[in-house]
Amino acid sequence: MVDRPQLADFLRTRREALQPEDVGIPRGPRRRADGLRREEVALLSGMSTDYYTRLEQQRGPQPSEQMLTAIARGMRLTLAERDHLFRLAGHTAPARTGGGDHIAPGLMRVLDRLQDTPAQILSPVGEILVQTPPAVALFGDASRWTGLGRATVHRWFHEPASRDVYPADDHELRGRIFVSELRAAAARDGERSRAAELVRSLAASSEEFRTIWAEHEVALPHGTEKRLQHPELGVMELQCQKLLDPDHGQLLLVFTATPGSESHEKLQLLSVIGHQQFERAQP
Predict the structure, then answer these.
(1) Ramachandran angles phi, psi of 163, nearest 5°
(2) CA distances (Å), 264 to each of 118, 170, 238, in order?
(3) Rounded to whole angstroms, how far apart are CA atoms 217 and 137?
(4) Which of 92, 94, 50, 90 is nearest to 73 (CA)?
(5) pLDDT tens digits for 205-221?
(6) Smallest Cα–Cα separation from 132: which of 148, 143, 146?
(7) How many CB atoms lie within 10 A of CB 20?
(8) What pLDDT, in 10s, does the model give residues 106-121?
(9) What is the assigned CATH class of domain 105-281?
(10) b/e burial code for range 48-59 (CB count within 10 A of at least 16 → b)
């Protein structure tokens, strides 16, 4: 059963404890209220303000696990706080596995400060968990993918358009790199893991995957340099920096370019495109 009074109180206290700077929101000069507003939490969690408000007012239906996951991410909850949220809402706390969707609060705080830069957080099997607006402009909105299709390696062999972000000359190497990374994850996580499930699915459905898999390539060197392309801006030569959260196995990828270069100019334009798309997407 939902403990509505405690759920409402927990959400309110967590919201009031967060400051705009904690989640990458500029603090306006006329801001008086402590903490975040309800509409800000709703935006960060990808839900309507009315839905979130009803939770704080002890109204509405029991929130689903998907909604609770979104709230935990939006409010930058720790794993212990996420588990408490689930229990208050009448759900069993999710298993604490390396393949879970709960993002380390520390990584989220870093991402919050990179809103003008292509950056995204990946799960241990390459599922894009959250993106900045410029990353959405460059890679597409990953939130539309479900199931195994959330993993980049799965889309690579099942969705030809997913390869368009890389120049055609780089496709062969990219495919081999994705397969080698999946091989390492499957060996690390075991036969019951998400990685192993991806291997079985791809082996049954893609001849190209089976061919690359049979080569047993591991830890292919690919450095930090990447060539990425955008339909309007063309090819950009970028550096990809990685920050690993060892407890969650999640990676924060940040894409930058050499100042003064043509790619740097394109990256600045990409930031404008990304924020325009973000603003159009808001209700």
Answers:
(1) -80, -10
(2) 12, 21, 8
(3) 32
(4) 94
(5) 999 999 999 999 987 87
(6) 143
(7) 16
(8) 898 899 889 889 999 9
(9) alpha beta
(10) eeeebeebbeee
CB-CB contact of 218 with 89 (8 Å):
no
Burial class (CB in 10 A: 0-12, 13-18, 19+), 273: middle
The answer to whether residues 20 and 36 touch, using CB atoms and an 8 Å cutoff, is yes
Q: How far is CA 225 from CA 76, 123, 239, in A?
A: 31, 21, 5
CATH number of the structural domain 4-88? 1.10.260.40
Nearest to 133 by CA among 260, 24, 20: 24
Long-range contacts of 86-93 (CB under 8 A, 24+ apart): 88/2, 88/3, 88/6, 88/7, 88/10, 89/2, 89/7, 89/62, 89/63, 90/1, 90/2, 90/3, 90/62, 91/65
| pTM for this predicted structure | 0.76
Tens of pLDDT, residues 12-32: 999 999 888 888 787 777 777
Residues of the chain with CATH 3.30.450.180: 105-281
262 close to 256: Cβ distance less than 8 angstroms:
no
pLDDT digits (tens, 9 = 90+) for 131-167: 999 999 999 999 889 999 999 999 999 999 999 999 9
